[in-house]
Specification:
The chain is α/β, with parallel strands linked by helices and about 180 residues long. About 25% of the residues lie in helices and about 20% in strands. It has five helices and seven strands, in the order H-E-E-E-E-E-H-H-E-H-E-H. The chain has helices at about 10, 95-100, 105-110, 130-145, 155-165; strands spanning about 45, 55, 75-80, 85, 90-95, 120-125, 145-150. The chain has a seven-stranded mixed beta sheet with strand order 1-3-2-4-5-6-7, with helices on both faces. The protein is globular and about 40 Å long. The termini are far apart.
Amino acid sequence: PASAPVSSAATHRPATPATTLPSPTTVHHVPPPPRAADTSSILDGPALSSNAGLLVSPRQKGNRLLHYVKNVKWHYANIVPDYQMTRDSCALFVSVKYHLLHPKYIYGRMDPLRRTYRCSVLLCLVDTEDTYPLHELAELAMHKEFTFMLAWSSLEAARYLETYRMFENKPAKLIK
């Protein structure tokens, strides 16, 4: 008897990623990110209460810096920026390598945020030796009225986000 043909979809198995990132469950016991069809645990809009923690856009799923955010709670929310640290501060994240591959990406992301938040940060991960993109990004940040911050590791970038969040209600005298 002839056997039925085997579907290539049945025999194909997706490759597993080399590194796995923690889900929000492993970071301060917040609920895991929703599946593609389930959006019930994603917050809508930029509402941020004093105990909500760091709001993270779903487009940042897979970003290594989330692995290092351990000092503040965080969860996904339907927000325009990549991160919302406080009610009036937000951040866009870009790596230099990504900017070199997609130079127009950050321009389109910055425009909707102009003058929406009191403090808008362009957080840039320096992951290349080439310094020219840093000059371009610094000029862009200045032109669009963003604070330009450089981080040389995902850990450093995570600490910047945590610090903004932790110092929300602290007096300016504590910053030295």
